[in-house]
Amino acid sequence: MANTKAKWTDAFRIDAWQNLLTGLGTLWDKGRWTVPRSTSFLDAETLESLFISDPWARRIVEDPVDAAMRQGFEIAASGIWIPVRTGWMWYEPDPEEVKRQAIDIEQELIRLGAAEILKKLFIFGRLWGREAVLIGADDGQPLDQPLVVDAIKAVHYLELVDRRDFFPSTYQSDPMLPGYGDPETWRINRASGTARSSQSTVVHSSRLLMAGGVVTSRSKRIENEWCDASVLQAPIYQLQRFNSDDMAVSSMMTDSSQAVLKIRDFAKILAGKDKDTLRTRMDIIDRGRSVSRVMPIDAEYEDFSYVDRTFAGVHQIMERRQQLLAGAVGWPVVILFGREPAGLSATGEADIRAWYDVIQADRGTVYQPLIERLVRLVASSVGEPYPASWGITWPSLWQESPSEHAARQKMVAETDAVYLAQGVLEPDEVATARFGSDEWSDRSPQLDHEIRGALREQDLVRARGKKVEENEPQIDWEEEGAIDV
Predict the structure, then answer these.
(1) The pairing of beta strand 130-138 with beta strand 208-212
(2) Which tens digits make up the pLDDT trace of 191-217?
(3) pLDDT band at 82 (very low <50, low <70, confident <90, very high)
(4) Which among 36, 30, 32 has a CA at the least distance from the CA of 234?
(5) Sequential DSSP letters for 111-157
(6) Strand partners for 171
(7) Any idea what DSSP says for residue 110?
(8) Nearest by Cα to 165 from 123, 134, 143, 206
(9) The pTM is what?
(10) Which of 69, 117, 275, 390 is disulfide-compatible with 379, CB 3.0–4.6 A?
């Protein structure tokens, strides 16, 4: 009652624009009654149907993950602070040891099929709003207990768990611990093939890699069975309208040309007793068209023609629908529909780079934390003493053409030449930066402080020797009795 009263009284506010003559801004303004509808989450069956049958919905779900993980990732180690008895110590891994251990970690990930499982984890997480991978790590503890990373002896398997197969079992009740009020353990119910009975297992959340959909508030996640909203939730109505318009255009194409046969006194024939004669006449005409492609009609009283349907404006309507759907998803039209850029000198490079910026941001905030957690667990299983030092790096999304790569090499070489001529860099520093790895690199040269220190010492020695020679007293050999030979 209070909400209804508030709506009515709001219509008579005097601190806003109103036009009593036209009704704009008043209670009779139709636009004032356009309000957001309450959230109704898409159920799992609807989402699965969209993913399987609708190509645009599938692209919305899959394409970002495909773009992010198309080139894979590289395993790398970096320095970290480690606790010691006296406090903290900076640990820097040995480069040669890193290469050897990286191969061991990569082999374990390949054995586990991690690349394919991680890809499915992120895809179905975007679709359902919640997806998980059960980590079969042997740490000597039951599955319902927290995972002890330092005690992991091996990672036996990675198992994808569907949203409909696991539910919260217990919740974190200690307000002094992270995740207060969130699920602490999950109950996994897995059906055994076609059997009606299912097996139930309680698993601690630390043994799950869990991916979600779009950012969703905690209250809405609770309402949606602890699932985020699907990435299809927001654009569903634009997706529905786009497909409806597309089917309408297809129906128009079916009836794009209509055959018309004009028969004299057609209405009288229908009202009279000669319907059988008309039916026989139409049957003869239809057979003539289908067999010999001949239209036998009365030359004086009948006329046959086609009426073509116009499609003016349909192209603009469908283009607008594409723009609205792409805007609802947040992608360029070039990416979502694979369209060629329109206009003179249009390459679509700006749209592609903007799309890659979004993917790169998702790499760092969505995909990398979960992948690095798995890498560190595998690193612990192969005997790495400091698993936290391990992580991943991503290759560039933008692929250069050979001409672009050559132009970039030339530009970098010219820049290096300027630095070398001015004495800013040393030749060894530039050579190491450009050709220190297996292939050419444009990374910034790292200053070699040992070489620079040695060069400074040599310059200082030279400077001292020159100063001594300049200040050395000159001997007058004539005064000393020297003989001029």
Answers:
(1) antiparallel
(2) 766 555 567 899 999 999 999 999 999
(3) confident
(4) 36
(5) HHTHHHHHHHHHHHHHHHSEEEEEEEEESSS-TTS---GGG--EEEE
(6) 183
(7) H
(8) 134
(9) 0.76
(10) 390
